[in-house]
Every structure is written in structure tokens, then in C-alpha cells.
Design goal:
The protein has helices at about 10-25, 30-35, 40-55, 55-75, 85-105, 110-125, 130-140, 145-150, 155-170, 180-190, 195-210, 215-230, 235-250, 255-270, 275-290, 295-310, 315-330, 335-350, 355-370, 375-395, 400-410, 415-430, 435-450, 455-470, 475-490, 495-510, 515-530, 535-555, 560-575, 585-600, 600-605. It is mainly α and about 625 residues long. Helix 10 packs antiparallel against helix 11 (about 195-210). The longest helix is centred in the N-terminal third of the chain and has 24 residues, at about 85-105. It starts with 9 loop residues before the first helix and ends in an 8-residue tail after the last helix.
């Protein structure tokens, strides 16, 4: 017999088999130096002779059995502290597994091929072999027993198919195709009393139900899964369920409980030694921190997750972490940095064929380009993202992209188009009881009404948006709604109300590090000061200079929808400054730029003089 599992390439291992026939040796290592240079013609001849001898099938069967034994050892190892060693080992042996699965099909040993493919699913996922893994799993699942014949088959045959189904569900990665796979594996595992597989399958079905909007059923199924894993004393399984429960808590707007679930998941994955699990738990905690507008902790947690995924070679994990970091950079107004992060993510998701990752990266990139004034590019990216989202999840699957499209159209000055997008997103967000999405859509519609001088409707929409944002404790959306209300009140001649709203908006945006938001709020405060009685043109000019520097730093020009009003404001402030001297406007502008560059925190004090000049 030949000794397999020796970390040799497939070509070498097959050559060892062939050489064993020719030279009649039994210890593979003794012949290894002889076969690296085996001539192709000799290999073909030896294969032919081996087949003639009747030993070919026996040798290949032995190879298949050895690969199967190795996968059985590796599968649990991929969830433990030695997972990195196992990943490296399986990478070396990958060609052997390919040969073994191919032979399992030729030999009609379908259960062996299914068990190997199921055991390799996690390796394929972590190392980015998504498309190849899906192809192998589809192939092995297409053969073998089914129906009554499968139900009557031995437990190991049923278990092999269940393993392949669970692997296929894992690699489907919540694309919508995983549900039937987990449901079938659940039935098989229950029929043979395979508790671990039952627990994992329950979790998979729960995720499917959650994605389809049945959170109550998902919670019930996850509770059952958690109880099974607890009965098995499986830290990894319990941590995985806690991670999924965190997203259910978040769907119920309970960020605190979601954070607790993810903390429990992180602790469980650490006990199990699973680096991948720790990475996804970091990602959940980062998301919760971002929702609390705690950008520094969110960034640090995302970086921790990214480091783990880089260590594992997990392209999907890296791509998600990069987008999370890009979201933080975007919210801080660091648009060039965000674009670099997204482009790195896009290169990974393209390599994986990850449509969901492509959607997330591409849509955010489109929104950023809209803020940078690159409207045709933004619209093309968002339109492509929306079409992809419709294909993946239906027309109601990505209302946030409709929101992005509304923002892009509004910034470009196409109000009718923006209104249509925001009305669509509002309807879906309301149906889904998504407070933050509803607040964002209402804010957009409020801006449309403001532009059309329908101040009563604008007040209604913006007040509602602000109330939802405050209720959800989302400081970013609160600052956006306050800014819009400040503009509205200024247009209505309510200087004090405008100043109050703009002051709070600027303070929030400063605390959040939102440079784009600070810039537009400073510009509106400059308009307030220019209209005051008496006017304060030099302070207004300093605010305009500071806003200009902030916009330049993040490559975010004044949007097209505001350009005419902005130019009029600059001209008005410049004319008012002439009374103080020819250079007053330029000097004040430059002073504002210096202040924004060296001490941006002082902009709040500069922008909000006390007492406010009367209109």
C-alpha cells in the first residue's frame, strides 16, 4: 500500500502510484526523488500497464479513502485553533481532493465524493474557491441516492449527502439558494440522529427565514440550534448562533442587545480558537459601534477583523471589512480614502464572483462619486447596483440604493427624478418598519418640498425625519435633518430657529468628524450672518473660507443643486466686505481656511456668535 496524505502535489502522488507498479516498492518516500523528473511518455505507459494489470482501480480506491480520512480530520480542525495549519495543509493537498472527487464519480462512490466536498466547503469558502467549490458540490449532489432509496440507505450515506448539502448552503452565502439545501440536510440529520448537523442546519434555515422577513420563526429556530450546540458543549456552534441572533436584535432596533450577542459570539469563538469567527464577531461589533456613531472604535474593530481575514486568506472577509472601513471614511468625509478602500474590496469580490459584495461596494462608490460631483458616473454605478439588487432580492430588496439614487439625483439638481426615487424608498422602508431608512427618505422628500417652496409640506417631512432620527439615537441622521430644518427656517425668515437648528447640526457634525456636513452647515451659517441686521460679512467670509478648505480636503465640491445660491452668497458677502477695505474678503476667507486646517474645533465658536444679530 502507498502512504498518502504526505503533502505532495497530485502529480507526484499519482506518479508514486504508477512507480509502485513499475518498481514494486511499498514505501513512497524512497521513490519520491525518482519521480519528479518522470517523463510524460513513461507516465502514460505506466498508467496503461497499471490499468492492464487490474490494479488501477484498487490504487485509486485507496487514494480516495486516504483523501476521505484526511477530510474527516480536517473538517473539525477548520473550526479550531489549528485552522491556519489545516488551511495550509488542504491547500497543498487540493489537487489530490480534486482527483479523488473525480474518481468518486467514475467509481459511483457518490457518498465518498459528497463527504469530501462537504468537508472541504469551509476551506473553499475561506480561501476564495467559491465558484469551484459550488461547482463540485453541485456535481456530487447531482448523483447518488434520493427519495425513498436514500431514506432506506445506511446512516453514513445519508450523513454524506447532508454534509454536502450543508457545505453547499454555506458556500451559497445567503444568496437565497441556501434555504432548500439546509432544509433537506435538516431532515436527513434528524432521521439519523446527527445532532451537530441538525444544529447547523437549523441555523441555516433560520438565516433563510430571517432574510425572508420572518424574524419570529428565525428566532425560534436559532433558539433550538443554540440548545443543541449547548448540549454538545460546542463553543463554536454556540458562538455562531449568538452571532446570527445579534443581527435579529439589530433588526428589532436593539443595538445594545445586538452588541451583547456579538460580545458573546467573540468570546465563544475565542474559546473554540476559530480565527474566522473572531473576525466576523469583530465585524458585528464594529457595525454596532458605527450605528452609535462611535467611529474610532468602529474603525479599530474593523481593522482587527481585517487583520484576521488577511491572516486566513479569506477574501470575502477582507472585502466586507474594507467596505466597513470605507463606510466610516465616507461618514467622516474622507472620500479619497473611502474610494481606495472600496476599490481594494471590488478587486476581491470580482475574484470571488461575490454578487452581494459587489452590490455593497459598488453602491457606496456611486454615492461617494455623487458627493464629489461626478454625477454621470454615480448614476451609472447606482443604476447597475439597483439592477443587481433587483436580480438578487427582487424590487423591494435594496431600498437603500433607491435612497442613494435619490441623493445623487438631488445633488445633480434633478428634483423630479430625486422625488421618484425617494418615494419608492420611503414606501419600502415603511413596509419593512425601517426607522432609519424611513428617516432618510423623509429628509430627501422634505428637501424637495423646500426647493419647491412648499414650506408646510417640507416642515411636516423634516420634523418627522428628525423625530425618527432622535428616536433611533442616530446622531448622523439627526444632524442631517437639523441642517435641512435650518435651511427651511432661514427661507421662512425665522433666523433664531434657523440658528438653533444649524448650531446643533454643526456641533454634531464636528463631534462625528463629518467634514462634508460641517462644510455645508458652515455655508448656511454664513448665509444667516450675511442676512442678519447688522450683517457680519467678515465672519461669514471666514466661514466660507473654512468650508472651502474642508471641501477641498475631501474632494467634495458644492453640489450642482446649490451652485447658483452659493455663488450668489459669495458675491453678497464679498460686496458687504468692501466697506471694510479691498482685501477684507480675501483676508477673512484665508483666515477661515487657516482655522479649518489648524483648529477645526474652534469653527464652532466662530460660527455661533452670541448674541445672534437680529434679522
Amino acid at each position: 500500500g502507498i502512504a498518502f496524505g504526505s503533502k505532495l502535489p497530485r502529480s507526484v502522488m499519482i506518479d508514486i502510484m504508477i512507480t509502485s507498479y513499475i518498481v514494486k516498492v511499498t514505501v513512497a518516500v524512497l521513490v519520491t526523488p525518482l519521480i519528479y523528473g518522470m517523463h510524460g511518455l513513461l507516465r502514460v505507459y505506466a498508467q496503461h500497464k497499471l490499468k492492464e494489470s487490474g490494479e488501477w482501480a484498487e490504487v485509486r480506491d485507496h487514494h480516495l479513502d486516504c483523501c476521505l480520512d484526511l477530510v474527516r480530520q480536517a473538517a473539525p480542525g477548520l473550526r479550531r485553533a489549528d485552522q491556519i495549519d489545516w488551511l495550509a495543509r488542504l491547500e497543498v493537498e487540493h489537487d489530490n481532493f480534486r482527483a479523488a472527487m473525480k474518481w468518486s464519480q467514475e467509481r459511483a462512490r457518490y457518498d465518498a465524493g459528497q463527504e469530501i466536498a462537504g468537508g472541504l466547503a469551509r476551506f473553499w469558502y475561506l480561501r476564495g474557491y467559491w465558484q469551484e467549490g459550488r461547482a463540485w458540490l453541485e456535481k456530487v449532489l447531482a448523483h447518488g441516492l434520493s427519495g425513498e432509496a436514500l431514506a432506506a440507505a445506511p446512516a453514513n450515506v445519508q450523513a454524506a449527502r447532508a454534509s454536502a448539502l450543508m457545505g453547499a448552503g454555506w458556500l451559497a452565502d445567503e444568496s437565497g439558494r441556501e434555504g432548500p439545501m439546509y432544509e433537506e440536510s435538516l431532515g436527513l440529520c434528524r432521521s439519523i440522529g446527527e445532532r451537530w448537523g441538525e444544529a447547523l442546519s437549523l441555523r441555516g434555515v433560520a438565516v433563510k427565514e430571517s432574510n425572508e422577513g420572518d424574524g419570529e420563526l428565525a428566532r425560534t429556530l436559532l433558539a433550538q440550534s443554540l440548545a443543541l450546540f449547548a448540549g454538545l458543549n460546542d463553543d463554536w456552534g454556540m458562538a455562531l448562533v449568538q452571532y446570527n441572533l445579534g443581527w435579529l436584535e439589530l433588526a428589532d432596533d436593539d443595538v445594545t442587545l445586538a452588541d451583547e450577542r456579538w460580545q458573546a459570539a467573540l468570546a465563544g469563538f475565542q474559546r473554540a480558537g476559530d480565527r474566522w469567527g473572531q473576525g466576523v464577531a469583530y465585524g458585528g461589533l464594529a457595525y454596532a459601534a458605527r450605528l452609535r456613531d462611535e467611529y474610532a472604535p468602529a474603525s479599530a474593530l474593523s481593522e482587527s477583523g481585517l487583520a484576521v481575514f488577511r491572516e486566513l486568506g479569506d477574501k470575502a472577509g477582507m472585502a466586507v471589512s474594507l467596505v466597513r472601513l470605507a463606510q466610516i471614511a465616507f461618514r467622516r468625509g474622507s472620500y479619497p480614502q473611502a474610494i481606495d478602500l472600496i476599490n481594494e474590496s471590488l478587486s476581491l469580490v470580482h475574484a470571488l464572483g461575490d454578487q452581494r459584495g459587489l452590490l455593497n461596494s459598488q453602491s457606496l462608490l456611486g454615492l461617494i462619486h455623487a458627493y464629489q460631483g461626478q454625477y454621470p458616473l454615480a448614476q451609472a454605478l447606482l443604476r447597475s447596483s439597483r439592477e443587481l439588487g433587483d436580480a438578487l432580492w427582487g424590487h423591494d430588496g435594496t431600498p437603500y440604493i433607491a435612497n442613494y439614487q435619490g441623493t445623487a439625483a438631488y445633488l445633480a439638481g434633478r428634483l423630479d427624478e430625486a422625488q421618484a426615487f425617494w418615494e419608492v424608498s420611503l414606501q419600502v422602508h415603511r413596509e419593512q418598519e425601517d426607522k432609519l431608512g424611513t428617516a432618510a427618505s423623509l429628509n430627501g422628500l422634505g428637501l424637495i418640498a423646500y426647493r419647491r417652496a412648499d414650506y408646510a409640506r417640507a416642515q411636516e417631512w423634516l420634523d418627522y425625519s428628525l423625530a425618527l432620527s432622535r428616536e433611533a439615537k442616530d446622531r448622523r441622521l439627526t444632524s442631517i435633518a437639523l441642517y435641512a430644518l435650518g435651511r427651511l427656517r432661514l427661507a421662512q425668515g425665522e433666523a433664531l430657529g434657523a440658528a438653533t437648528a444649524l448650531r446643533e447640526s454643526l456641533a454634531l457634525r464636528r463631534d462625528l468628524g463629518d467634514r462634508q456636513g460641517m462644510a455645508e452647515t458652515l455655508e448656511m451659517l454664513a448665509q444667516l450672518l450675511a442676512l442678519a441686521e447688522p450683517p457680519q460679512p467678515e465672519v461669514a467670509a471666514r466661514l466660507l473660507g473654512a468650508a472651502h478648505l474642508l471641501r477641498h480636503a475631501i474632494s467634495a465640491p458644492v453640489p450642482a443643486v446649490d451652485c447658483a445660491e452659493y455663488e450668489q452668497l459669495c458675491g453678497q458677502v464679498q460686496a458687504l466686505c468692501l466697506a471694510a477695505g479691498e482685501s477684507a474678503y480675501a483676508d477673512a476667507w484665508a483666515a477661515g481656511e487657516r482655522l479649518a486646517g489648524s483648529a477645526p474645533d474652534k469653527l464652532l465658536e466662530l460660527a455661533l456668535p452670541q448674541p445672534l444679530p437680529a434679522p
